[in-house]
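yo

u said u wanted the structure for the complex thing, so here. seqs first:
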Amino acid sequence: MSGYRIDGLGRVDRSRRVNFTFDGQAYAGFAGDSLASALLAHGVTLFGRSFKYHRPRGLLGAGAEEPNALVTVERGGGVFTPNLRATAVEIHEGLVARSQNRWPSLKTDFGSINDRLGRFFPAGFYNKTFMWPRSFWEKLYEPAIRRMAGLGDAPTVADPDHYAATYAHCELLIIGAGPAGIDAALEAAGTKQRVILIDENAEMGGGALADPALAAWLERSLKALAEAPNVTLLKRTTAFGYYHDNFIGAVERLTDHLANPGPQSLRAPREQLWRIRAGEVVLATGAIERPLVFAGNDVPGVMLASAARTFLFRDGVAVGRNVAVMAAHDSGWKDACAMARAGMGVAAIIDCRSEVDPALVQEAESLGIDCLIHWSVVGVNGRHGVKSVQVLHHDDFLDRRLPCDALLMAGGWTPSVHLWSHSLGSLAWSDDWGAYLPDKPNEKVRCVGACAGKWSFGSGMNVGHLETNRNPAAIKAFVDFQNDVTAKDISLAVREGMKSVEHIKRYTTNGMATDQGKTSNLNALQLASAAMGKPVPEIGLTTFRPPYTPQTFGALAGHAQGPLFQPTRKSPIDSWAEAQGAVYEPVAQWRRARYFPKPGEDMHKAVARECLAVRERVGIFDASTLGKIEVIGPDAAEFLNRMYTNPWKALEPGRCRYGLLLGEDGFIRDDGVSARMAPDRFHLTTTTGGAARVLNMMEDYLQTEWPDLDVWLTSTTEQWAVIALQGPKAREVIAPLVQGIDLSPEAFPHMAVREGTICGVPTRLFRVSFTGELGFEINVPAGFGRHVWEQVFAAGQAHGITPYGTETMHVLRAEKGFIIVGQDTDGTVTPHDAGLDWAVGKKKPDFVGKRSLARPDIVADGRKQLVGLLTDNPAEVLEEGAQIVADPNQPVPMKMIGHVTSSYASATLGRSIAMALVADGRARVGQKLHIPMPGRVITATVTDTLFYDREGSRLDG
Amino acid sequence: MVRFSGLSLFAKALGNHQSWPELWPDAQPKPAYDAVIVGAGGHGLGAAYYLAKKYGITKVAVIEKGWLGGGNTGRNTTIVRSNYLYDESAHLYDHAVKLWDGLSQDLNFNVMYSKRGVMMLAHNVHDIQSFQRHIHANRLNGVDNEWLTPEQAKEYCPPLDISPEARYPVLGAALQRRGGTARHDSVAWGYARAASALGVDIIQNCMVTGIRRGADGAVEGVETTRGYIATKKVGVSAAGNTSVVMRMAGLDFPLESYPLQALVSEPVKPVFPCVVMSNTVHAYISQSDKGELVIGAGTDQYVSYSQRGALHIVEHTLAAICEIFPMFRRMRMLRNWGGIVDVTPDRSPILGKTPVPGLYVNCGWGTGGFKATPGAGDLLAYTIAKDEPHPINAPFNLDRFRGGRLIDEAAAAAVAH
Amino acid sequence: MILIHCPYCDEQRPGLEFAYAGEAHIARPADPSALSDEEWERFLFIRANPRGRHHERWRHIHGCARFFNAVRDTVSDKFELTYKAGEPRK
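structre next:
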C-alpha cells in the first residue's frame, strides 16, 4: 500500500482494506491496524501537538503508554470522543479521526508561539506572575490560560450510546495476555477453577504479537484456552483499578471498533464495566520501555525501540527506511538486529554506555549496522520528522551529523506495577532494572513475567540526562512528553526547594498527563536524584492511582442512567393520577401528585379549589408513600414506649396515637400516627422520606440495646395502599362501601382504627385527620389500591369528591398548625421548640433522646420556637425560608431571630398564613416582626400556629 | 525572598532560570520555639504565616510527618464558597473568602483564586425552601447568594440539562458569584514561602510522637521523630489525624475519620464555566485551569485512614454527573484518589482552645476545609497568639458538644417529609 | 469493595450488602438521667477513631438484617474478625 508497509510481516489482514480519514485526508489501512500503524504505513509522522508548547509530536509508543498521539474520533451526529491514543484506536471502515489542540491546522499551529517563548514558561511560571493588576486574573490571564490548556474539545451533545455493567467471580483472574499471562492461564486451564484472562488489546498475545518466533505457540495456546470450559477470555478489556479484597474494576470496549454498531435502538452497549471478585489475581502486565532524555527527543519520528519493533512485527509497518537507535540498554540492540534481519534499514546503534556485550556488537556489525559505543544523541534535525541526528562522542565532546529518518530510543524497562500498587503491595527498588519491582503483596496476588522483573531484556545503564555538549539549561530535553516537562523543569523544581517526589510532580506536572507518567516517572526520578545528589529510593515514588488508563464516565456509571439512574418509586394509585393529568413533585425517591390542575389552572388556582373542596365537601388523597412498620410481639408496647416520646402502654387496641421520635441528641427525627391493632400488634406510620431510617433506627435499638424485648419489626410501606378521604362528606362517601365497621361517631371516634372490608377488600380503616376535617385513611393491600380508589372516587361523585395533591395537603395541615418534619423542623428542633410538649410523656423515666433534652443549651432561653405569622397585608404570601428580624432598620449583618418554615395562601381563610421558627417565639405572640426582602420589608404579627377551627368542631363532620 | 513578578520571571528567564532561590528552606528542628504548628497543610502553614505577620511571633515551627501540602490540601476539589446558613458559619467562611480575595498579592504567589461562581442546584421543593433560607440569611449577613431560575442557571452554566423530564429536574439554583476555585498546591506553597520568609521553620518528614505536659498540665513541648522540641504553645492542624495527635495529650475527641474520594477527567478545552453542586443528586463539578473536570465523590461509610475508597462510590458519582450533564458520558476519568476527612457530630469544625493549656486545635472540617484555608489559618494564629478565640471562631469550641449548642448545617438541610 | 463475614449468615459477602453502624461497644446507659452532662457527651459524641484496630458495628442490611460487631484495621481496612452482637469485646 505504501513504502512503509513490509510484505510478509505483521498480523494485519491484507485481504481487507479499510478506508478512513485523518484531519479530512483519506487513507486506507488493513483490518487489524490501529490508527497509528495505518498512518505510519503512509509515512505520516505528525500526529498531534503537545499540551503546553504546542510542539509537533509523533508516536512515542505503540500501546497504552502513548503520550503524544492523541486524537478525536467522530461517531456522527456531532458525537465524538476526545483524547484517544492513536495506538489504541482500531480502524474501521469510515473511521473519522482528527488531531487536536492546534489551530488552524496540525502542520501550522499558531499555539506553537508558546514553544518560542518557552523559556518564559518554566515549571510553576503561573505562580510567579499574572498577579497585576488584580482584576486581570479573572478577566484576562485565566481565560487565556484556559484557552491554551486542555487537549481535545469537550463533547457537547448528549451521548446517544448506552453502557452496561456486570459482576463476575472467579478463583483466578489473570491480567495481561502476554506470554507470562497466557502461561498462567494454560496452567489453570482444565482445572475446576474459574479463570478469567483479560487483556486490553484487540488481540491477545502482548509481546508475542511482535515476535514471529512465538506466532505458532501463540495460536496454539489461545486455541487451547478458548476450548477450555473453565477459562473466560476478555479482550479489549482494561483492568483499570485494583480495590479492596481482590475486587478489580475492568472495562470492556464493545462497539468502538465496529464500522456500524447498528441502529441506536438495537445497538449493543458501547462499553461494559466488569466488577470482578477474584480468589487470586495474577498480574502479567508486562513492562514499558523508557525513553531517553536529550535535546530533540520529542521530534516526530523519535520513538521507543520497542514501539518500532511492535509496529514492524505486529502490523507490518516500518517506522523508517534508515533508522538509528539510541540505546542505554541491551534490548535496543536486540530490537535493532531483529528489525534489520526483517529487512528494515538500520543505520546505526548509538549507545551511551562505555561497554556493551561484544556478542551484541558482533551481531549488529554482521548486519551492517554502525555501532557508536560511548556516544550519545545531542540533537535531532527535522521539525515534523527526523532528517538526521547529531551524535556526540563522549571522549572528544564533538558532535557529528548522522543521517537517518527515525530515531529509536532504548532506555530500559519499567515493570507495569500500577495495579500491584493499587492493591497496596509494596515496591522495592532494583538497580538492575532502574525501576521499582513488586515486593510484598497486600492481597492474594502474584506477579509474573516482566512486571515481576522476571523477564530478561538484557542489562542496561540507568541514565538521567544523556551526555551533551550544549548548555543543559538552554535545551529542551523532554521527560513528560504530553505535559511538556523538560529535564530543566525537574532541576528547576529541585532548585526551588521541591524535595519530595510528590512536590516535583505537582510543581512540574510530570506524570500528571493522560498517560499518567507511564514513560516519564522513572526518568523524572533519575533526574531528581541527580539534581539532589540522593539515590532514587530515598526520593520515593509517586503513588499510583486508578485508573490504569483513562476510563469512560458512561462505563463507570453503567446502567445507572436516565430512568435507571435512581428508579422512581410510584404508589399503586400513581397511574390513576397520571391519567388525570396530575403535576408531580419528587419526594425522597417517590414521585407524588402535587396538584390536579383543571384546564387553565395554575398551581395557585388548583390548590385553592382543592382546599375548598376538602373544607366544604370531600377530597381524596393518595397517602400510600407514608412509611409503615408492623410492630409485633408481647413487648411491642414497651418497645414503642422506649422509642417514642409519649406513652404507649396504656393505648387501647383500636385506638391511634401521634408518635414523636427523637434522635438520642434530643432533636425531632420523625413523626406519624400509629395504631394499636391488638395488644401485641401496632401499625406504625412514618414520614415518606424517613421510612427506611426509622426502621433502621428501631432495629438498632431492638437488636443491640434491648435484645431482651420480644418484638418483631416488618416494613409494610409497600404492602398497603393508603387512601385519605378528608372532608365533611367523607363518612357519607364510604358508608355504602364499608362492611363490618360501624362508622358512627360514637362507635368510631377520631383517632380510632377498625378492621373490616371496603369494596369487598380487607381494610384497616383509620379515623384520622391531617386536615382538621372529618377524615379516614383507608389502608388496603397495595394490589387493590387502585381498585378501591376508583370505587371510592365513583361513590364520591355525588358529593363533589375532588382529588388533591401534596400541595393542598400542606396548606390544609398548616391551617391547623400541624408540622411537617423536615420542613417546620430541621434536625435542630426539640419537641419543646416545636410546641409539641403535649406529645412528650412527662412521667416516663426514659425514652430515646430524653437525656439530651436536659442539656444546658437545650433548656436555655432564646431557642427558636415554632409560631404562626400573619402578614399585615393579608394578600402577601411570605417566602418560605425568608429571615425574620426584630429591627428592620439595623445595618447588615443583621441580627436574625428566625425564619419562615411554611407559608401559603389560604383560600379557606382568605388570607396568607405562615409558620416560623422564631427565637423565644411563644413569648412574642402579638409582637410585630419584620421580614426584610430585597428592596422592601414585610411586617407580620406573631400568633400561635392554629389558624382554623380553633375549637376542633369539624373533626366529626 | 525574591519578589515574584512578570519582570523577575523575564529577568530570570534570560539567565535560564538558574538563579531562582528555594521557595522555602528545608529547616532542621531547633531545640525550642515560641509556637509549634503540627501539620503543614494550608491551614497550618497559614497559621504560621499569620502568627509571624500579624502577631510578630516568628519563632515558629511547622512540623509535618510527610511533605507539606500532602494531606487534604492537595487532595480536594478546590471549591471556595461561604454561602452557609447559620450566622456562625457564614461569618467563619466569609472571613476566609475575604482573605482569598487578594491572597495572591499578599503572599506574592499566585494561588489562582478564580471567582467563577458556585451554583447549587435545587431538584425538589425541599431544596428550594432550603436554598431560599440560605439566600435570605446570606443576604442579611452580607454574603452574596442569589436565586436563579432554571433558564438563568443554564445561561450561567450552558452544559446544564434543565429539561423537565430529567429524573431530578433542575427547579432553580442558588448562585454565589464570589465563590469559585483556587489552585490547591499553590496555596500551601504560597503560605510556606511567605512564612519561611518571615522566619518560620518548615520541618518536613518529622512526625509528632508525643506531647509533653508539665506538672500544671500545660504543654511543655512535643516529642518528634527528629527529637524533642520545647514550646509552650502547640497548634494542631492535622486533618485526618487529629484524633491520634490529641490522644497524645490525653484528649478524646468527637471525631471520626472517613475516606473521601475525588477524581478528574482528561483535560479538554474550556466547557464548564463555574462550580456546580447538587446535594440531592450527590455531585459537584468544576473545570480546572488545566482543562480537567474536577469532580467530588462521596465518603465511604466506614472509618478509615487508608486513603483508599471503593469503586462503587465513584460509579455513583459519575452516574450523578452524567445524569445532570449527559454530554460528559464520553469523557474519561483520568485520576481518582482518596483523602481522609475528620468529621464532627455537627459537621462544623472545632477551632479553638482545648482543656490542655497551651494546646490549640483546628480540626473537623469534614469535606469542606479547603475553602476555609486562609480564614482558619488566621483564626488559629489569633487564638494561639492571644490564648483566646477570636469572636468568629469562638462558637466553634469543643464545649458545644456538651451543652448541645451545635452548629449543624447538614441537619438544617435535612430532608424528611 | 470490602468483603465482610456476617457472623449470623456465616458467609463472606460484599460490602454493598452491609451498612456501617459506627463504633461498637458504646452501650446506651441503663439510666441516662443519672449521667452528668460530660458523661452523656461522651456517650453521644466521643469516639475512639483509632489509627489501627477498630471495634465497629455493621448491619447485614441486604441479608439477614442483623447488627453485629467487627474488628477492623483502619489503616489497611482489613477485617480481623466479626462476632455477634452481645458478645464481649474481642
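Chain B touches chain C at residues 241, 243-244, 252-257, 301-306, 308, 310-312, 345, 401-403 (CB under 8 Å). Chain B has two domains: 7-75+184-254+346-403, 118-177+256-342.
cya
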